[in-house]
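Reopening this one. Same input as before:
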Amino acid sequence: MKPTKRNYRATFILDNRGKDDSIEQLITGVKNEITAVEGDIGTVENLGRKDFSRVTDRDFPGAAYVQISFAAPAEAPAQLRERLRLNSSVYRTFVQSV
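Same output, byte for byte:
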């Protein structure tokens, strides 16, 4: 029996400092992580580069923001956060149920 999937919208702050990867390549990597936790990708919206309201690192005043809508089982957000915690290209992750 297939588990019921819920709808989520996740916002990611991507960090490509010191890397040769473009933002589009980083987005593809994040999408691969979502599909690895049995998620079905919906819309992907690149919000562009934004400055942080509270800067914790002077060398990193802003970054690229991306919103991805997806459907996944209930345990997927926790699994996704754990997988992305190890990824240095993803600075922050915020997943909300829609």
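So the earlier flakiness isn't reproducible anymore. For the record, The longest strand covers residues 40-51.
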